[in-house]
Amino acid sequence: MADIIEMPKLSDTMTVGTLVKWLKKEGDTVANGDMLAEVETDKATMELECFFDGTLLKIFADAGAQVEIGAPLCAIGEKGEKVEAPAKKSAPPAEAKQEEKKAEPKAEEKPAEEKKTEPKAEKPASQPAEAPKETVTSSRVKISPLAKKLAAEKGIDYSNVKGTGPGGRIVRADILAAEKNPPAPKAAPAAGGGKPAKPSWPWRSAFDKSPIQAEGTAALSNMRATIAKRLVESKTQLPHFYLEIEVDAAPLNALREQLNAGLGNDGVRVSVNDLILKAAALALRAVPAVNCSWTDSGIKAHASTHVSFAVAIEDGLITPVIKDTDKKTVFEISTEAKDMAKRAKAKKLAPAEFTGGTFCVSNLGMMGISRFSAIINPPNAAILAVGTTEKKPVVVKDQIVIGERMALTLSCDHRVVDGAVGAQFLNAIKAHLETPALLLL
Questions:
Q1: Cross-strand pairs, 410
Q2: 340 phi and psi, to 5 degrees?
Q3: Burial of 192 by CB count in 10 Å (0-12 exposed, 13-18 middle, 19+ buried)?
Q4: Pair 14, 156 in one domain
Q5: Which of 34, 62, 129, 224 is close enough to 119 for a disulfide, judged by CB 3.0 to 4.6 Å?
Q6: What's residue 221's pLDDT?
Q7: pLDDT tens digits, residue range 122-135?
Q8: Per-residue DSSP letters for 171-183?
Q9: Which helix (H) or strand (E) holds 148?
Q10: One domain for residues 212 and 262
Q11: Closest CA to 152 of 217, 76, 210
Q12: Domain count, the chain
């Protein structure tokens, strides 16, 4: 009897997975440990592992489909064995649902374009006849959300693609066909007409990679939908308050230069963020009341210090976790953080690597942001927002000198962290950053 492989739960918040692509095809011989497909969860893209030896008899979900946890994906058995598709739980792509609605108008209704409203004959001659109602036709290209997302990923201008779906709607198959046979581009508008060309901003390339390329509604990825849900819950359910402190960053920058220029670091280059992660971990150890979480039964104190850091990826962000951060050297933190950030952007992190954090650091200093306030990442009780280092005039011993200053903003869950506790924590971080030799102990 064939063995059925179902959609597994690959993260703590996952409800559906998107089947990105199959790595095996029907009829292939497979073995325990082989990778069958790539599945996108709400946090990463992961490989689906085979747990049986045999032949891939049947694939039940196509690439691009959203499949609920526990729904059948494929069948593994003996070559030539007959297998029937079990009841599917797969949530088809959004385009299928929309096309079904388009294809089945209610029996008592005619399609919108066939409807006409005649002027009412009983209107007296002295009054103008009621104008016929016009059917409103959108000038926008009709395209399903999945097809639009696929077009953005493949860099296809779908405005030139001819749709084969109901009402001329562009569907996934049309985009795949356009990839093989690109349509001829439309003629350029006459001089003085049309939309102006994109300005040549230095950061333009970052926007060009965005999945939101044209007017309309972009389909949500699993990750973006989960981020939206969790951030709304955090901002509406957690009573945020904010504390800010300014740090003298000159000693920190001096130490970083010495570490990166010195011997014995095995070629590891330390960043400011690595030093901040270490400082946050030591501050959590000094002020353990921040290293806690709110639960329905009370405030949970964490025995270990696991500091996560925000990494921006293509369609959202993820927070890899440095486990036992306070017990690791800055060189170990740097090595681990660089490896995790690289794999996070490739969506190759394992669930254990982005869960279990007890505190989070969000650093936009490298992007030139002076200061900002971050939203707490539950179940953490606080998050630290780090701004850029700025040179500015400061007063030192009644003398105005040029100093290097960095703003730190702490967002706190007031159910767990009171103002005095948050202030103690920020001052502990400040002490470690302004006396950075403490980070090397």
A1: 243, 384
A2: -65, -40
A3: exposed
A4: no
A5: 129
A6: 77
A7: 444 444 444 333 33
A8: -HHHHHHHHHSPP
A9: helix 145-154
A10: no
A11: 210
A12: 3
pTM above 0.70, yes or no: no
Q: Are residues 257 and 178 in the same domain?
A: no
> Taking 90 as the threshold, does the pLDDT of residue 391 lie above it?
yes
Distance CA 358, CA 293 (A): 8
User: pLDDT tens-digit profile of 254-312?
Assistant: 999 999 987 556 788 999 999 999 999 999 999 999 999 999 999 999 999 999 999 99
Claim to verify: residue 83 and residue 153 sit in the same structural domain: no
State the residue range of the domain holding 212: 94-101+143-183+205-222
Per-position b or e across 370-387, b if 16+ CB within 10 A of its CB: ebeebbbbebbbbbbbbb
- In a shared domain, residues 294 and 334: yes
Which of 29, 62, 92 terminates a domain? The answer is: 92
12: CATH? 2.40.50.100
Q: Which residues are catalytic?
A: 414
Residue 380 has pLDDT above 90, yes or no: yes
Beta-sheet pairing, 307-309 with 321-322: antiparallel
Q: In what order do the strands lie in the sheet with 382-396?
A: 240-248, 399-413, 382-396, 359-363, 307-309, 321-322
> How long a stretch of residues is the chain?
441
The per-residue pLDDT for 196 is: 47
